[in-house]
Protein backbone atom coordinates (compact mmCIF):
# COMPACT_ATOMS: atom_id res chain seq x y z
CA UNK A 1 0.00 0.00 0.00
CA UNK A 2 2.97 2.28 0.60
CA UNK A 3 4.03 2.19 -3.05
CA UNK A 4 0.42 2.89 -4.07
CA UNK A 5 0.34 6.08 -1.97
CA UNK A 6 3.82 7.07 -3.14
CA UNK A 7 2.79 6.72 -6.76
CA UNK A 8 -0.59 8.41 -6.36
CA UNK A 9 0.67 11.51 -4.56
CA UNK A 10 4.37 11.79 -5.42
CA UNK A 11 5.60 11.41 -1.83
CA UNK A 12 8.22 9.20 -0.20
CA UNK A 13 6.93 6.73 2.38
CA UNK A 14 9.19 5.64 5.26
CA UNK A 15 8.50 3.25 8.10
CA UNK A 16 9.91 3.93 11.54
CA UNK A 17 9.80 1.57 14.48
CA UNK A 18 10.53 2.92 17.93
CA UNK A 19 10.52 1.17 21.27
CA UNK A 20 6.79 1.63 21.77
CA UNK A 21 5.38 2.91 18.49
CA UNK A 22 5.46 2.32 14.78
CA UNK A 23 5.15 5.26 12.43
CA UNK A 24 4.69 5.80 8.75
CA UNK A 25 6.33 9.02 7.60
CA UNK A 26 5.34 10.68 4.34
CA UNK A 27 7.89 13.13 2.92
CA UNK A 28 7.06 15.58 0.14
CA UNK A 29 5.25 18.86 -0.28
CA UNK A 30 3.05 19.79 2.66
CA UNK A 31 -0.32 19.37 0.96
CA UNK A 32 0.70 16.04 -0.58
CA UNK A 33 1.91 14.62 2.73
CA UNK A 34 -1.31 15.59 4.48
CA UNK A 35 -3.53 14.03 1.83
CA UNK A 36 -1.27 10.95 1.82
CA UNK A 37 -1.85 10.44 5.54
CA UNK A 38 -5.59 10.85 5.05
CA UNK A 39 -5.58 8.41 2.13
CA UNK A 40 -3.52 5.87 4.08
CA UNK A 41 -5.96 6.11 6.99
CA UNK A 42 -9.00 5.57 4.77
CA UNK A 43 -7.44 2.75 2.75
CA UNK A 44 -6.19 0.98 5.89
CA UNK A 45 -9.69 1.13 7.37
CA UNK A 46 -11.25 -0.21 4.16
CA UNK A 47 -8.59 -2.92 3.89
CA UNK A 48 -9.20 -4.07 7.46
CA UNK A 49 -12.92 -4.36 6.73
CA UNK A 50 -12.29 -6.19 3.44
CA UNK A 51 -9.99 -8.65 5.20
CA UNK A 52 -12.61 -9.41 7.86
CA UNK A 53 -15.31 -9.82 5.20
CA UNK A 54 -13.12 -12.16 3.18
CA UNK A 55 -12.24 -14.28 6.23
CA UNK A 56 -15.96 -14.58 6.97
CA UNK A 57 -16.72 -15.51 3.35
CA UNK A 58 -14.29 -18.45 3.43
CA UNK A 59 -15.63 -20.02 6.62
CA UNK A 60 -16.90 -22.93 4.50
CA UNK A 61 -13.32 -23.96 3.72
CA UNK A 62 -12.03 -26.75 5.88
CA UNK A 63 -8.59 -25.44 6.67
CA UNK A 64 -6.63 -24.16 9.63
CA UNK A 65 -7.12 -20.64 10.98
CA UNK A 66 -3.56 -19.83 9.86
CA UNK A 67 -4.35 -20.76 6.28
CA UNK A 68 -7.49 -18.62 6.35
CA UNK A 69 -5.38 -15.66 7.48
CA UNK A 70 -2.85 -16.37 4.71
CA UNK A 71 -5.64 -16.50 2.11
CA UNK A 72 -7.09 -13.27 3.47
CA UNK A 73 -3.65 -11.64 3.17
CA UNK A 74 -3.46 -12.80 -0.47
CA UNK A 75 -6.89 -11.27 -1.03
CA UNK A 76 -5.68 -7.99 0.51
CA UNK A 77 -2.56 -7.95 -1.67
CA UNK A 78 -4.80 -8.42 -4.70
CA UNK A 79 -7.12 -5.68 -3.49
CA UNK A 80 -4.25 -3.21 -3.24
CA UNK A 81 -3.13 -4.25 -6.74
CA UNK A 82 -6.65 -3.60 -8.04
CA UNK A 83 -6.78 -0.16 -6.44
CA UNK A 84 -3.35 0.65 -7.86
CA UNK A 85 -4.58 -0.12 -11.39
CA UNK A 86 -7.14 2.69 -11.02
CA UNK A 87 -4.77 5.49 -10.07
CA UNK A 88 -3.07 8.01 -12.30
CA UNK A 89 0.47 8.47 -10.95
CA UNK A 90 1.28 12.00 -9.81
CA UNK A 91 4.01 13.75 -11.71
CA UNK A 92 6.78 15.12 -9.56
CA UNK A 93 9.20 17.74 -10.85
CA UNK A 94 12.89 16.89 -10.99
CA UNK A 95 13.65 19.62 -8.44
CA UNK A 96 11.01 18.38 -6.00
CA UNK A 97 12.26 14.80 -6.38
CA UNK A 98 15.86 15.80 -5.68
CA UNK A 99 14.89 17.89 -2.66
CA UNK A 100 12.83 15.04 -1.25
CA UNK A 101 15.72 12.59 -1.70
CA UNK A 102 18.13 14.97 0.03
CA UNK A 103 15.75 15.53 2.94
CA UNK A 104 15.19 11.79 3.38
CA UNK A 105 18.91 11.05 3.26
CA UNK A 106 19.84 13.86 5.68
CA UNK A 107 17.10 13.38 8.23
CA UNK A 108 16.14 9.70 8.20
CA UNK A 109 19.00 7.52 6.84
CA UNK A 110 16.60 4.87 5.44
CA UNK A 111 17.39 1.16 5.14
CA UNK A 112 15.80 -1.49 2.98
CA UNK A 113 12.93 -3.38 4.61
CA UNK A 114 12.57 -7.15 4.65
CA UNK A 115 9.32 -8.12 2.96
CA UNK A 116 7.45 -11.31 3.51
CA UNK A 117 4.74 -13.06 1.56
CA UNK A 118 1.43 -14.27 2.89
CA UNK A 119 2.56 -17.89 3.05
CA UNK A 120 -0.36 -19.06 0.93
CA UNK A 121 0.18 -20.85 -2.38
CA UNK A 122 -1.70 -22.95 -4.89
CA UNK A 123 -5.06 -22.55 -6.55
CA UNK A 124 -6.80 -21.21 -3.43
CA UNK A 125 -4.20 -18.45 -3.06
CA UNK A 126 -4.51 -17.53 -6.75
CA UNK A 127 -8.29 -17.39 -6.42
CA UNK A 128 -8.04 -15.18 -3.32
CA UNK A 129 -5.62 -12.83 -5.08
CA UNK A 130 -7.81 -12.63 -8.20
CA UNK A 131 -10.92 -11.91 -6.12
CA UNK A 132 -8.98 -9.15 -4.34
CA UNK A 133 -7.90 -7.56 -7.63
CA UNK A 134 -11.50 -7.54 -8.87
CA UNK A 135 -12.75 -5.98 -5.65
CA UNK A 136 -9.93 -3.42 -5.65
CA UNK A 137 -10.80 -2.28 -9.17
CA UNK A 138 -14.12 -1.05 -7.78
CA UNK A 139 -12.35 1.31 -5.38
CA UNK A 140 -11.60 4.80 -6.65
CA UNK A 141 -8.72 6.93 -5.41
CA UNK A 142 -8.59 10.61 -6.34
CA UNK A 143 -5.79 13.09 -5.87
CA UNK A 144 -6.39 16.15 -3.70
CA UNK A 145 -7.08 19.59 -5.07
CA UNK A 146 -4.96 21.66 -2.66
CA UNK A 147 -1.67 23.02 -3.94
CA UNK A 148 1.26 24.58 -2.12
CA UNK A 149 2.15 28.17 -2.88
CA UNK A 150 5.90 27.68 -2.70
CA UNK A 151 6.19 23.89 -2.82
CA UNK A 152 7.71 23.72 0.66
CA UNK A 153 8.82 20.23 1.66
CA UNK A 154 7.31 18.69 4.72
CA UNK A 155 6.93 15.46 6.57
CA UNK A 156 3.71 14.15 8.04
CA UNK A 157 3.53 11.17 10.35
CA UNK A 158 0.81 8.57 10.58
CA UNK A 159 0.75 7.20 14.12
CA UNK A 160 -1.75 4.39 13.64
CA UNK A 161 -0.91 0.76 13.16
CA UNK A 162 1.58 0.25 10.37
Describe what you observe in this structure.
With 162 residues, this protein is α+β, with helices and mostly antiparallel strands. Helices cover 53% and strands 12% of the residues. The protein has 5 helices and 3 strands; from the N terminus they run αββααααβ. A 3-stranded antiparallel sheet has the order 1-2-3, sandwiched between helices. The longest helix is centred in the first third of the chain and has 28 residues.
Short overview:
By secondary structure, this protein is α+β, with helices and mostly antiparallel strands. It has helices at residues 2-9, 30-57, 65-86, 94-107, 123-136; strands spanning 12-17, 22-29, 153-158.
Could you list some keywords that capture this structure?
3-stranded antiparallel β-sheet, 162 residues, alpha+beta, 12% strand, 3 strands, 5 helices
Please specify the SSE layout and strand pairing.
Blueprint: H1 2-9, E1 12-17, E2 22-29, H2 30-57, H3 65-86, H4 94-107, H5 123-136, E3 153-158
Antiparallel strand pairs: 1-2, 2-3
Helix pairs in contact: 1-2, 2-3, 3-5
Using DSSP, what is the number of strands? 3
* Count, helices: 5
Shape: elongated
- Which structural class best describes the helix and strand composition? alpha+beta
The helicity comes to: 40-55%
Amino-to-carboxy terminus distance: 10 Å
Q: Mean pLDDT, nearest integer?
A: 79
How is the biggest beta sheet arranged?
3 strands, antiparallel
Taking all Cα atoms into account, the compactness measure Rg is 17 Å
Q: Uncertain segments of ≥5 residues (pLDDT<50)?
A: none
- The string of secondary-structure elements, in order, is HEEHHHHE
Estimate what percentage of residues fall within beta strands: 5-15%
The spatial strand order of the largest sheet comes to: 1-2-3
Amino acid sequence: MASLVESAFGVKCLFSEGKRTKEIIFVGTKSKTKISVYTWTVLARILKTKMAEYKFSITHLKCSPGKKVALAEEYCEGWVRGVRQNIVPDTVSQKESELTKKLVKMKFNPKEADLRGSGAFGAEANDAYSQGVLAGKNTRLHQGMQADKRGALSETRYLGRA
